[in-house]
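Please think about what follows:
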Amino acid sequence: MPPPADIVKVAIEWPDAFPKLMEIDQVSPGTARLPGEATRGTKTHLWSLGSHEHFALQLADGTRYYITEKSLSASQLHERIQSSSMDAKLEALKDLASASRDITFAQEFINLDGISLLTQMVESGTERYQKLQKIMKPCFGDLLSFTLTAFVELMDHGIVSWDTFSVAFIKKIASYVNKSAMDAAVLQRSLAILESMVLNSQDLYQKVAQEITIGQLIPHLQCADQDIQTYTVAVINALFLKAPEEKRQEMAHILAQKQLRSIILSNIIRSNQPINDEMAHQLYVLQVLTFNLLEDRMMTKMDPQDQAQRDIIFELRRIAFDVECDSNNSGSIEKRKSMYTRDYKKLGFINHVNPAVDFTQIPPGMLALDNMLYFAKHHQDAYIRMVLENSSREDKHECPFGRSSIELTKMLCEILRVGELPSENCHDFHPMFFTHDRSFEEFFCICIQLLNKTWKEMRATSEDFNKVMQVVREQIMRTLTHKPNSLDQFKSRLQNMSYTEILKIRQSERMNQEDFQSRPIVELREKIQPEIMELIKQQRLNRLCEGTCFKKTNNRRKPDKYWYCRLSPNHKVLHYGDLEESPQGEVPFDSLQDKLPVVEMKAVVTGKDCPHMKEKGALKQSKEWLELAFSVLYESDEYLNFMAPDKHEYCVWTDGLNALLGKEMTSEYTKADMDTLLSMEMKLRLLDLENIQIPEAPPPIPKEPSNYDFVYDCN
């Protein structure tokens, strides 16, 4: 007779004792028995350990997580880290740093006021350790490193608020960052703590900003350790992100003075070691925050009555038509107005009488005028040539510089997403934007010349303006995908991305997406579409059966925080559980401790409707972050939250879960798969109608020639 479903057999061992195979009742915690015996107390009966509530079962493999909620281990470590013996203290802190990753242990240790003990050790105990540093330097570094590691791990669980820490603790952590020579592990943990303080508390941001300056962080970017460089950029980004609006421009000025851009370019982007994903993310965040400084000008309308702003337009006219201009005092007022109107028309403004009105549209507002002035002053020859060249053309073929600049600035802001918060999962930084202090303005200067070139290639008229802008956007977007290393390389690639090349690419893409519009073909498509949809559904469910590894926390620099979820082969149960590290291949079902029956699932929600997306964290409001979030709601108002590693996994899981609930699969990947499979099936059936035999196996790969000593005789 098989044992009840609630009874599991587990091997339990105690140090220096022979392991026992026990039968544990999952319904009645704290009870166990030897096979064939009556139930008795788990853990404590066999080895006479005393009160069972002070002990816990711990997994022997992998995660080393505790299974029950209470544990003597927490109180023991709480005592051991206060030992007067440095060796004992070091060993205890090492164990604490490892055990703190487990949330059950962390909760118990925090309940013993463990966080306060660690902060006191950092605040007051460090001086005593420093006295011993000369005679036992490695021990000091390890001691402090394990203390800070345990602190970081405990705080990552989100049990304790960051607002509870004293100024003395902040000063102490900041002092480790400000020192020129500090143990690498200590420096890493200290930078991580400062970043979390700044991001999680506005009050702590103020205190940290008083203790840390950009000048003190810069040297850490010049070291060879990419992890330290990454944490340093992360702290700079956090300070930038949390700074009040009025202080961000001031901070950007300080970063420019300290040559942050050139230091990052030479020590990180152009260093010999490859850039890891987390560093790429931090460089992307810095890029976004830097471009977001343009938002104020982008959303500022021009005041047509403001003389200082009008003078900028006068300067554009002066630079372009210097030889043609009369002095402002010569001639009648009517003559001067007529002359200005003529010149403003040549400059390509929509409003020839008062071009200031053109800059009242937001976006791009005053940012467009700033770009035009930069181009006129820093690329004067190209500016004058462009204006004069277009003013000498026939009216219908001239490229309006003013109108083009305004629309191009707006387009570049859209492409670079100026004003949007950085995404939590994006690594899309562009090295070329770190090669110049005025990278956006230089970017504009290259693109406005491209626009003028494309206008001529298309032989465009004013009616074709929107078509030209669409082609220019495509040229820019396709070139950016190659991630040019410099602005010169970007410019060079754009030269090859001519209008003719764009037409070739479009033609090639159209040929690869044949559209069968005849009535018999349309009817056949409608007939086989349900079969294809069922095939897609089975593929989605099979992928859910294989399972996916998801990140357990939002902290990207914690690669050991993962959980895995997969669907049972009979499609009736979701199995999930925590992992120590990202797995290589599938995780077996018996390694996943938790279950969710499909019959208990109520709905699948995505984006802002997810429980874990309703928090108002600064970085959680970005579009990309919301696009990867989904949750399964089940009975008793419970939920299982997911954050997909990428868009593909998001679509696979939301499709599969909706299929389990009997709902329609609506993701963009379903539509793409449907189009691809339908197209393939249609082609195969048409080939079959022509009686063309398709082989079951692919043709063999040609063998390598045995002799390479040959030439081709052109005669």
